[in-house]
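Re: How this chain folds, sequence and tokenised backbone to follow
How to read it: Take the token row as a discrete description of the fold.
Start of record: The labelled sequence and token lines come straight after this line.
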Amino acid sequence: MELTESKEDYLETIYQICKEEKVARVKSIAKQLNVSLASVNYAVNILTEAGLLKHKKYGYIELTESGGKIGREILRKHHIIRDFLINGLGVDEKTADEEACRIEHDISNHTLERIISFMKSKNKKRKSR
């Protein structure tokens, strides 16, 4: 299944909620993403059918192993890009968070690794002063 940006956002959000609360609820997902309960239910059904979530009607939502892996990777990309924008380019936190959310879906692994290398070398230079 090819994941859209929207579905990736759901997995990332569910991953974050599950890290804090062990399971997610439709209401908490809707609140965090600022979408309707119907939108969350629709996305959850699609992601459940794709084997990325476990969900029983009106019950808790949990990530499957593969869903958790994808959610974790999207969140990792988000943090790396956000850190680069703030600490590498001096972008304010709010803008960096919004931009990271858009970039995380399209950035190649090669470019992400280049950002990581750049930030590591920048941090080494800072520490050696």
